[in-house]
Amino acid sequence: MRHYIYKVMVAVIALIIVFEFTIGKTINKFDEKAELLFSKEGRKNMVISVKSEMQKAIEKENYLSNDERILINKFIFKIKNELKSVE
Fold it and tell me: Would 81 be classed as within a structural domain?
């Protein structure tokens, strides 16, 4: 009976270790990112980051590449056509 208890204890400890090094790390990474999004300080940092990126975009002469301009133009044209069909 003792050997059985020892084997079960070793198996449980091994499972805990395997869980911590595989799934546990992934859960911890997700938890850290979620904490950044939902904390007041994290939101402030995100707003500051968005503002700085917007400032960089304003300072550039051409923000979009030619391919991006064509793609966005086609998309807006398609939306306009769909909205006209409603009238």
Answer: no
